[in-house]
Structure formats: structure tokens, C-alpha cells
């Protein structure tokens, strides 16, 4: 079920549609491509966990509260930091002992549109099922679920907040997960130069970025996976990176040769603020990411059929970088403010 934002939809979400004749020059398919990047009119919430303001506020409080960690030093926001595009800026997430976990922290931006399964390898069936693993992991927040529920039940303000958010005042794992997921679905990308261009402002991005957009959707085939307003098709792909023992989705689907070394396609929103890149943080810069795609990555049976050497010129690489730069908000304030609203920000 999708939650209707309400009477403000027209003003806040109703971006100017891209008409067939909008703009000039570039690839003749550009107008059609632009149309596919228009923002949605609704923030989707599942019917089994519909939106309510009380539930979202409870989830926000829980997200930032170290009460959910064993020693009271870590919270969800320890790794998902608003000012770092809801990631942590590390190659791999930090353990509570300040070591490295196996994977980097994924952003939560536009998580409402990330269809399950979730996680780099798809181990989570839904957003509601994600929170328990980091909470109870000895390497992460290190708090058994039973202890978390006991703590929350003993806190009078949390007891009141749960009673307000749910029909039954009992504090359960399912309600804890539902509140966190409700808040996280409100973490929405802020308006970017790209969005203003999609809405019809031809001056919002430069000509190199427009050429990069054409390349992204055309010959480079980036949009075969990074498609639509959220710049992901939610698929799992082997893009020819990673040579270690972690084979991603292939570990959970061992009979599928195509899923060996396949990892979740992430959104490209705020991509300029989210380095290093890939599931393991093994690629330091966007320039290096483009070089990886340009050479086609590691040639192996599971590599996606859309990944192949591109033989891009220096100018084409620069154009792609210019385009990717348009997918980030101007300042951290833009992103953080947008993330706490219940609307898809207008450009």
C-alpha cells in the first residue's frame, strides 16, 4: 500500500512533466529518457505496516538512541549518519571493537523504494526484518532482543510512545521493527540539480552533464541497472569486482551460477558523498568506478551480460562524472532536512 502524502502532493511532488519537445540537441532519445526519471507521487508503505506520525516519531527516536546497544555506545545512526548521506564514509563498517566488518554500510536514502530482498546479498526479506541483525550481533550493537524489549518496557517515556503508536501497549520485537522501518522510509533524497533539470530547468545542469546523461542511458548502459528516479532496479549483479571468499547472493542461491559474486545494485542518489564504493569499499573514487566499468571488470561466467569493455574516451569519462555530480544535493543541510520530511522534495 502506498501512503498518500495529501493535499500538498500537487505542490510538493508534482514536478513539471517532461514533454516530448523539451530541450534540444543531444541524443534523440533524451526526452524519453528524461521522462523515466520523474519522481513518484507517493512514499510506499506496506499494508502490514502503514504510516502513522506517532510510529514514525517513535522510529526516529529509536534510530538515534544508543539504548539499543549493549553498552549504550552505539545506535543505528552510528553507521547510518545523516551528514554522510546516511552511510559512514568507511570502506567497511566498523565493529564495536573498531575493527572492520565484511561489508560497507549501505545508504538508507530512498530505502522506501528498495524492493526486497534487502542487504548487499539479499539476506533480508523486508525492511522490517533488517534491524534485529545489527542490534543483536556481538560485533555490532551486541544487545539480545529480549534485553532490548526489557529496557524499552522499563522506560516510561518509551512505554508511552509505543502505546501511542500502536493499538496495544505491549512492546514487542515486531513493533520495534515496524517503528524503525516507518522512520527509515521517510529518508528521501533531497532536490538536486538533476531533479531541477528533469522538471524543465534547462540551465540546472551543464552540457557535459547532459552528454553524460545520454551516455549513461545509451552506449554505456548504466541505466540497465541504475534506472528510474532512485537509480536502481533493485537487482543483484556481478559487475566484475571482488575476488575474495564473499560471493554475495551466490552464497544464498548456490544453484544459480549467474548470482555468484552478485551484489545488490545501490541507488546513485548522493553518490558523490558516498565513497569509497562497491559492497566492500574496494574502489576509492568515482573516477576509479568509471574506469572499472570501462574495462569491463573481471571476466568470469557470472559477470552480468550488460558489463563489457566500453572503450570510453577521456571526454566521455569526464561527461559521466559531470552527470553523476548532478545527483547530489548542494549541501548536507539540504539532504538532512529533506530526509526528515514526509514528502519527496520538489526541485
UniProtKB/TrEMBL annotation:
<feature type="binding site" description="covalent">
    <location>
        <position position="76"/>
    </location>
    <ligand>
        <name>heme c 1</name>
    </ligand>
</feature>
<dbReference type="InterPro" id="IPR026259">
    <property type="entry name" value="MauG/Cytc_peroxidase"/>
</dbReference>
<feature type="domain" description="Cytochrome c">
    <location>
        <begin position="207"/>
        <end position="328"/>
    </location>
</feature>
<keyword id="KW-0249">Electron transport</keyword>
<dbReference type="InterPro" id="IPR051395">
    <property type="entry name" value="Cytochrome_c_Peroxidase/MauG"/>
</dbReference>
<dbReference type="GO" id="GO:0042597">
    <property type="term" value="C:periplasmic space"/>
</dbReference>
<dbReference type="GO" id="GO:0009055">
    <property type="term" value="F:electron transfer activity"/>
</dbReference>
<keyword id="KW-0574">Periplasm</keyword>
<dbReference type="Pfam" id="PF03150">
    <property type="entry name" value="CCP_MauG"/>
</dbReference>
<keyword id="KW-0732">Signal</keyword>
<keyword id="KW-0560">Oxidoreductase</keyword>
<comment type="pathway">
    <text>One-carbon metabolism; methylamine degradation.</text>
</comment>
<dbReference type="GO" id="GO:0004130">
    <property type="term" value="F:cytochrome-c peroxidase activity"/>
</dbReference>
<feature type="binding site" description="axial binding residue">
    <location>
        <position position="80"/>
    </location>
    <ligand>
        <name>heme c 1</name>
    </ligand>
</feature>
<feature type="binding site" description="covalent">
    <location>
        <position position="79"/>
    </location>
    <ligand>
        <name>heme c 1</name>
    </ligand>
</feature>
<keyword id="KW-0479">Metal-binding</keyword>
<dbReference type="InterPro" id="IPR036909">
    <property type="entry name" value="Cyt_c-like_dom_sf"/>
</dbReference>
<dbReference type="InterPro" id="IPR004852">
    <property type="entry name" value="Di-haem_cyt_c_peroxidsae"/>
</dbReference>
<keyword id="KW-0349">Heme</keyword>
<keyword id="KW-0813">Transport</keyword>
<feature type="binding site" description="axial binding residue">
    <location>
        <position position="226"/>
    </location>
    <ligand>
        <name>heme c 2</name>
    </ligand>
</feature>
<dbReference type="GO" id="GO:0020037">
    <property type="term" value="F:heme binding"/>
</dbReference>
<keyword id="KW-0575">Peroxidase</keyword>
<protein>
    <recommendedName>
        <fullName>Methylamine utilization protein MauG</fullName>
    </recommendedName>
</protein>
<keyword id="KW-0408">Iron</keyword>
<feature type="binding site" description="covalent">
    <location>
        <position position="222"/>
    </location>
    <ligand>
        <name>heme c 2</name>
    </ligand>
</feature>
<feature type="domain" description="Cytochrome c">
    <location>
        <begin position="54"/>
        <end position="163"/>
    </location>
</feature>
<feature type="binding site" description="covalent">
    <location>
        <position position="225"/>
    </location>
    <ligand>
        <name>heme c 2</name>
    </ligand>
</feature>
<dbReference type="InterPro" id="IPR009056">
    <property type="entry name" value="Cyt_c-like_dom"/>
</dbReference>
<dbReference type="GO" id="GO:0046872">
    <property type="term" value="F:metal ion binding"/>
</dbReference>
<comment type="function">
    <text>Involved in methylamine metabolism. Essential for the maturation of the beta subunit of MADH, presumably via a step in the biosynthesis of tryptophan tryptophylquinone (TTQ), the cofactor of MADH.</text>
</comment>
